[in-house]
């Protein structure tokens, strides 16, 4: 008698959820990515107890058609890629078709959605099981409520940190998402209190101001560089404004915020002697490139990427930072007004 069994779907979804949904902030990230991919112009986030009790994301995006609602919860079911060719030219934030399957397998989820031209749908999914699907009138857009995250995976629940820590992770996620999409209006509430909003008018400096405050925004310098393969834009802080850790360096590739030690190093090398030892700058760097030049299929959380011409990008980033800082120091202080 053989010993190998094919695991049932609900169990394999739970296993996959371990990689995709590490903590409430991962749910927020995945839901926001879906709202961005659905061409939303406005996204509202409502949290209760740092998302441990409830995470609600509402958008005014494309919505999901009634016949697609059930499929949206299947694993590896996506409207964003259809073949291998697409996988190497991903233009959307999502493409793995895993998030809704994973999130709904470890929470109690409600989906309300409408494409605007037909009656909307409401679905309730608890622990991966669809409890109900019914018609729902609603204006165009999608609302997803994730309650009692990890209620059926006690080990994961135990591993979560304090409300304060989890809220910190969520705030960082929303900040980076807003910095990546200055054209989208974000609004965030925690326990009924407004934490944060962005105007959604495409002005990155205004988003920086909402997140880091007016003083820092006034101390940022514009960075811009166009090469054959890469277009770099964004803001870097004057060297006198530094921080004690790297979390204030935001790297954005084609609208996706990423973590990348190589680009971090390029920035720090560009600052070179301008930075005191152990201090880090505040940077928001947007890098646009042909999707073919960046592989986003490295890890389920999609924040790690691989660049096919890493050295070239490293040099361009380093040089761009260096140039901005040196132009700045050539101008006698007091002459240049922001
Ligand atoms: P992926 O984003 O990788 O495609 P998800 O599991 O996150 O996978 O979502 C599955 C599908 O559900 C998406 O491909 C999309 O078609 C649909 N979807 C999810 N969230 C939204 C949303 N907010 N607005 C419109 N469609 C959505
Ligand atoms: Mg997704």
TrEMBL record:
Q: Does the keyword DNA repair apply?
A: yes
Q: A biological process (GO) annotation for this entry?
A: mismatch repair
Any one cellular component term from GO for this entry? mismatch repair complex
Q: Which UniProt keywords apply?
A: DNA damage, DNA repair
One molecular function GO term is:
ATP-dependent DNA damage sensor activity
- List residues of the DNA mismatch repair protein S5 domain: 208-326
Keyword Transit peptide belongs to the record? no
Query: Family, per the entry?
Result: Belongs to the DNA mismatch repair MutL/HexB family.
This chain's function reads: This protein is involved in the repair of mismatches in DNA. It is required for dam-dependent methyl-directed DNA mismatch repair. May act as a 'molecular matchmaker', a protein that promotes the formation of a stable complex between two or more DNA-binding proteins in an ATP-dependent manner without itself being part of a final effector complex.
Protein name as it appears in the record: DNA mismatch repair protein MutL
Q: Which organism is it from?
A: Piscibacillus halophilus
What is the taxonomic lineage of the source species? Bacteria, Bacillati, Bacillota, Bacilli, Bacillales
User: Which part of the full protein does this chain span, and how long is the full protein?
Assistant: 1 to 338 of 612
């Amino acid at each position: 008698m053989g010993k190998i069994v094919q695991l049932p779907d609900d169990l394999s979804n739970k296993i996959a959820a371990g990689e995709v949904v590490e903590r409430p902030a991962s749910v927020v990230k995945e839901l926001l990515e879906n709202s961005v991919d659905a061409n939303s112009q406005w996204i509202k986030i409502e949290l209760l107890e740092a998302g441990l009790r409830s995470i609600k994301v509402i958008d005014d995006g494309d919505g999901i058609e009634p016949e697609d609602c059930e499929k949206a919860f299947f694993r590896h079911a996506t409207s964003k890629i259809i073949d291998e060719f697409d996988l190497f030219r991903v233009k959307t934030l999502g493409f793995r078709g895993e998030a809704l399957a994973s999130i709904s397998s470890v929470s109690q989820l409600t989906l309300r959605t409408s494409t605007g031209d037909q009656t909307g749908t409401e679905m309730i999914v608890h622990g991966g099981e669809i409890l109900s699907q019914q018609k729902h009138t609603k204006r165009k857009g999608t609302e997803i409520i994730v309650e009692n995250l990890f209620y059926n995976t006690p080990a994961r629940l135990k591993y979560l940190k304090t409300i304060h820590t989890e809220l910190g992770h969520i705030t960082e996620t929303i900040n980076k998402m807003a910095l990546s999409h200055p054209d989208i209006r974000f609004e965030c509430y925690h326990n009924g209190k407004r934490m944060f909003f962005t105007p959604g008018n495409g002005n990155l400096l205004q988003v920086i101001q909402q997140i880091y405050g007016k003083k820092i925004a006034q101390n940022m310098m514009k960075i811009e560089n166009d090469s054959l393969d890469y277009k770099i834009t964004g803001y870097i802080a004057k060297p006198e404004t530094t921080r004690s850790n790297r979390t204030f360096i935001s790297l954005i590739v084609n609208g996706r915020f990423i973590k990348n030690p190589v680009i971090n190093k390029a920035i720090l090398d560009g600052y070179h002697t301008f930075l005191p030892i152990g201090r880090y700058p505040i940077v928001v760097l947007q890098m646009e490139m042909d999707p073919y030049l960046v592989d986003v299929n490295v890890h389920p959380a999609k924040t790690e990427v691989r660049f096919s011409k890493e050295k070239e990008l490293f040099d361009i980033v380093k040089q761009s930072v260096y140039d901005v800082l040196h132009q700045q120091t050539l101008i006698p202080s007091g002459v240049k007004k922001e």
